[in-house]
Write a structure and sequence with these properties.
Largest sheet: 5 strands, mixed
Helix content: 25-40%
Number of strands: 16
Number of helices: 19
Distance between the termini: 119 Å
Structural class: alpha+beta
Amino acid sequence: MPSNTEKARIFTRRAILLGGAQATLFSILAGRLYFLQAIEGGEYRRMAEENRISLRVITPPRGRIFDRFGVPLAQNDQSFRVVLLPEQVSDLNELLKKLGSFVKIDAADRKRIEHDLKERSGFNAIVVRDNLTRDQMDAIAIHSPELIGIDIDAGEVRAYPYGETTAHVLGYVGPPSRSETEDPENDDTIMGVPGFHVGKNGAERQYEKDMRGEAGDVELEVNAHGRVVRELMRHDPKPGEDLTLTLDIGLQQFAQQRLAREAGAAAVVLNVHTGEVLALVSQPGFDPNLFTFGIGQEDWDELNNDIHAPLLNKAIGGVYAPGSTFKPVTALAALEADIVDPNARVYCPGHYELGGHTFHCWKRGGHGYVNMVEAFAASCDTYFYDLSKRVGIDKIQAMALRFGFGKKLDVDLPHERGGFVPNRFWKKTTRHQEWQLGETLVTGIGQGFLLTSPL
């Protein structure tokens, strides 16, 4: 057996080893505490703050649209919606089931909400249902303790008081598409806000960036259940700019009423001295208010399948043969080329013969002998057939281009088409055919390949 001295030595050695191990563990623990408190403490404090602070985006009021006399054509009406706060949702199905007792939530709504929940991040809320009634709001408010992750949001919706009358000029607004959301020129913060809409057509689209404004934000302190305790900081949004058009809504209504019975028609009224558009109507139209809360599939299919194309702005996007309104261009080409005496008379028997083909005047019995002024007054086709033959397609095209035919007029509305003025070169290169003299005759009275918009 070891002696007392040897036992003491062994005990001392073990005590030293155990003490060293304890000292080492204590040093590691102290170092870790120092790292967490001194070095990483700021980060953990920030994370703790984020757990109790909710940052929410405030959408700016969209700029309004007025006619030339200050009559509102597009305005913002207050609306209430129920939204879902992603950071507070633990069981989506159960939450939507409870909420479904107070507002209608169908399969399409669920699919959309699930998609938005995957696509969006942070504190951006997701719209569940727009345009709540007072009864729906009261029911949700009463049962709010059971609906953790659901909130009532007050916002603004676009309203068009004149509906169909101004639809093609103003266009409409709708939720941003994926391409618009991902566009680096757009503020992705505001694009994800519930109920945010962008211009989709007409003036709403043309002046989208001016009327959109700039988003604000608010920092809210929330409790463990996500309920707001107090507001910590607010940065108010910058409202969008108002837009005043040259349109005269009274004249616009008058023109629209005159075309109301037409299956397809367009009318444009201009100030000839300034070029201001006073009225611009396309018939049939549509109600832009249908798009405010998201147009239903049935309404969308009806608009798209209508053979009269109500979504097409025929005044600027439809191109047609201008007909007799083109005859002054033909006359001016002949006068400038000095190949016609405006007082000389041409006989109109009701038709014009050329190369074995008969070109009819609109008046079967003819107009008799007419000079240029009388031909304009009677819109005599035969006179302008003869004039077109003498002036030729090249001079007619050159004069038409000088008057802006075949070009866009940049009327500050999207989807404008410029029309088309034909010539020999175009037909040779595209149709591989020679230009025919008869085609010159019909071009001279605004028919044939010639196309232009009502504008």
